Amino acid sequence: MINTKSIIPSIFGLFLSDKTRAIAENIILKLALLSFFIHLAIIYLIKFDFLALPQNSELLTNPISAVYTPFSFILIYEVYLLIYYLPKSFTTYITKQYEIITLIIIRKLFKDLAALEVSANWFEIKGDLQFTYDLLASLLLFYLIFLFQKQGKQKTIPQISNQSIIDKFVKKKKLIAVILVPLFFIMASYTLIDWSAGASSNKLPSFESVNNLFFDQFFTVLILVDVVLLLISFFYTDQFHKIIRNSGFVISTILIRMSFGVSGLISTILIVVAVLFGLAIIAIHNKYEKNPLPNGINP
């Protein structure tokens, strides 16, 4: 008979082990490098009239914009790492969300950099102004993520009273991670096929649509995952500060998802506010951890 208790650990070991992570990293980095040269080649083939593709695409006009494609593969790897760290560390899982949205902004900067209009009217040109906002936001997010990681690594007074309860919580997180691997693979494959179909029919979407491809649905799924983790945590802890921490991370993810529904400065502000809120939540949570209540359980 099949031992059902060993199925999830076996699948988890197959897709999310250290060995699998190393293999995935090697493959994706090679694909990123290859995609850069392919994108670069397409740009020059179009430039010298060897290839007929829509020239109104903002990603096919300047060699600098070719960096956009390998960054997309790096983002895919970050998605994998987010799932990889979900059962291991909740704060690292949230950190990966922040890193992914920051890399999306950095990726956009390469496209904007290729289309900059350097002139005395810098702050009157919409594209140049948005580039300035995104550039400053990427620096601020980089520093906020550093602070968030620092807060996440703070040593607090242990409050674990029942290790078996913690193990059960980890097993449930592993189950969620196992479900997410094929789900995100299917989502990414569908997005790629749908985009390729549009490209082959010369109906390329606008850049804003391209920049949001996959990741708007991705963060929608993350909201659902965060809510599930929040509800599961109620079975293992009744500590107020932990409930608020997990609830706060859900709100932070929702703010990031909302940024995909708007454009310009509002989108950038929503992203920065989301990370700031997450940082404030974990900083206050750590204050509570340094003054633990009796009989607390730390899931």
Number of helices: 10
Kindly state the percentage of residues in helix: over 70%
Order of helices and strands: HHHHHHHHHH
Query: How many beta-strand runs?
Result: 0
Structure commentary:
- The chain is mainly α.
- It has one domain.
- Helix content is 73%, strand content 0%.
- It contains 10 helices and no strands.
- The chain has helices at 7-16, 18-47, 68-85, 90-114, 126-152, 163-200, 207-212, 215-233, 240-259, 265-289.
- The chain starts with 6 loop residues before the first helix and ends in a 10-residue tail after the last helix.
- Mean pLDDT is 82; it is low at 295-299.
Descriptive labels:
299 residues; 10 helices; disordered C terminus
Can you summarize this structure?
The protein has 10 helices and no strands. It has helices at 7-16, 18-47, 68-85, 90-114, 126-152, 163-200, 207-212, 215-233, 240-259, 265-289.
Give the SSE map.
Elements: H1 7-16, H2 18-47, H3 68-85, H4 90-114, H5 126-152, H6 163-200, H7 207-212, H8 215-233, H9 240-259, H10 265-289
Helix pairs in contact: 1-2, 1-6, 2-3, 3-4, 4-5, 5-10, 6-8, 8-9, 9-10
